[in-house]
Design brief:
Length: 211
């Protein structure tokens, strides 16, 4: 029996506003339409799993326990809007910054696939029908490494990838474009998680119709 399909989402810049190194729960600002997007995905039997690099722990900005409290508050805020996450997996490491056990080259820091593989095993996920959504090139590289479709949220402060004539899938929707990643893989570029969720649901339905 095959596992569940999932949408792996980044945290900062995807679910919540990126404030640099988020250190306190009162800094959490859920981005517009994020609860709607999560509800839409779950209504179509897609698990929503957060994968996030949190080197603030390695750098000594907060403890693992403080990070856990931040994530519990994030889940509470989303739940008040009827949006529920299936899991949050985080990497507290950094290969060169900080000290102690968290300063290490690990297999869980994106774009490494350790977090995704852990989620696959623990949540019984079928990666063949899963997706990655994030606002960083490392998210798209992760998508390539685990063989799933990537959806990049526009980062207005950073560089945007160049459009290509043959984006992934079809039915991109208003404002969405296709782009090519560093390794030549195709991914979608959208403005926010809501737009990503709409495209994912359409693509997921097409896959179900073909099966």
């Amino acid at each position: 029996m095959s596992g569940s399909s999932a949408v792996f989402v980044d945290r900062d810049g995807t679910l919540i506003r990126d404030v640099g190194y988020l250190r306190r729960a009162d800094q959490i600002e859920v981005l517009p339409r994020v609860p709607d997007a999560i509800q839409l995905l779950r209504q179509h039997s897609l698990k929503v799993v957060v994968l996030t690099n949190q080197s603030a722990v390695a750098r000594g900005f907060l403890t693992p326990e403080e990070l856990e409290r931040i994530h519990e508050e994030l889940k509470r805020r989303l739940a008040r809007e009827g949006a529920f996450l299936d899991a949050i997996y985080c990497c507290p490491h950094h290969p060169t910054e900080g000290a102690g056990p968290y300063r290490v080259s690990c297999e869980c820091r994106k774009p490494q696939d350790g977090l995704a593989r852990r989620a696959q095993a623990e949540l019984n996920l079928d990666l063949r029908r899963s997706y990655v959504v994030g606002d960083q090139p490392s998210d798209m590289e992760l998508a390539s490494r685990i063989g799933v479709k990537g959806i990049l949220i526009r980062n207005e402060e950073g560089e945007r990838p160049s459009p290509i004539p043959s984006p992934i899938g079809g039915g991109l929707g208003r404002g969405a474009t296709g782009s090519r990643g560093r390794e030549g893989t195709d991914f979608l570029v959208v403005k926010d998680l809501w737009e990503a969720a709409q495209w994912i649901v359409q693509d997921f339905k097409r896959g179900e119709d073909k099966s």
